[in-house]
Amino acid sequence: MALFSILLTLCLLSIHQVLSDKSDIGLNPGEMVANHGYPSETHEITTDDGYIITLYRIPHGINDDGTAKRPPVLLMHGFSACSGEFVSLGPERGLGYILADAGYDVWLANARGTAHSRKHISIDPDLNPEQFFNFTWHEIAIYDVANSIDYILEVNGDESVYYVGHSQGTTVFLVLASTIPEYNNKIKLANLMAPAAIIKHYPNTFIQGICKYVDRVWDLLQKYRIYEIPLVGTIRDTVTTLCVNYPDEESDPLCAFIHDSMLSRIDEADVPVVVSNCPSGAGLKQYVHYGQLVRDGGFRQWNYGTEKNLEVYGTENPPDYDLSLITTPVAFYYAKNDGLITVEDENTLAAMVPNVAINYMVPDDSFSHGAFAMADDVVELVYNELLDIMSQY
Ligand SMILES: *[C@@H]1O[C@H](CO)[C@@H](O)[C@H](O)[C@H]1NC(C)=O
Fold first, then answer.
1. Which among 330, 332, 349 has a CA at the least distance from the CA of 393?
2. CA atoms of 209 and 16, how far apart (whole Å)
3. In DSSP terms, which residues pair with 106 in a beta bridge?
4. Predicted local distance difference test score (pLDDT) of residue 1
5. Best mutation site among 131, 134, 303, 308 for ligand 1, i.e. most ligand atoms within 8 A of its Cβ?
6. Partial AB-hydrolase lipase domain location, by residue (predicted)?
7. Comparing C-alpha atoms, which of 376, 296, 345, 328 is closest to residue 160?
């Protein structure tokens, strides 16, 4: 009996200490899913403006024969990440697996410009980067997300999807549901983790300073034909390794900032698997559009400058996204130690959205922006709450 309890204790301890699986390193998210014995499908769709994007699907859980009908859920990753962020932590902690085992038909989208969606029917991203990367999260919303939802509904047969977004994945929901309000009827419930739309009080003063000159930075980047953040391969590994094990705060304040706000709750043992997919590629114009939000304070469309704004929008300033048009119930999940979105900005945003299902602050003071996808205890702190809310809609 004593032996049995010792074994049981050891077993429970080892369950609690699940680390991500090293055999996932170097695999794409779909291959990771298959690597753990889950059903895995890869779908490529062509958006209305010609981008070819990849959706990975986990059609059902591991202990499930897949015959019953399941409600679909679309997961949308953050800026400079990719769908790998929802499976890198493995079956016990990766949200993709957890939702599949909870009875959902799970779809992991990859925005245009990421390593898994760097394709277009006629534009070559390497030969014509100025054309290929001529998008912000506005286009990711109205094409990639909208077209993904329609595709998922067609394959699954349901009339609406559940939505889960992290960071930029929240931005694109807010853009879509306010710009093409018909999509509110196609989304049962939107779960927004670390919502990025109002970024008026961006906590980092160094970056806030740069944002004042964001238009000049953009002109300069164009002049030197830099359109992409190629965070893949060697560059990615170097940057991430540097910032996970940053030397010290004095010698490298920027890395210290990235570490404290983004990577603070990641278990070092998870790093090799997490960084094998994230960060992924992205377009610099996305970054600049966020920079405009920091500078201007609102949640609005791309700012061309007064003259061209008048021509394109008929107004000197770009139009605000009209969040009052969002009828989908929205569940917000935010963190006190989010190094990008302050509590004040989050609360301002939540007050602008008409149908708030819950505005949940993670009960942990050091939980950061990246922790929603990477924290060792994200299940207890966030995902259990999310599953509970989803079951109510
Ligand atoms: C980028 O798209 C805008 C419209 O959104 C267009 O006016 C501009 O000419 C495009 N630039 C390039 C280089 O394709």
1. 330
2. 43
3. 58, 73
4. 38
5. 134
6. 31-88
7. 328
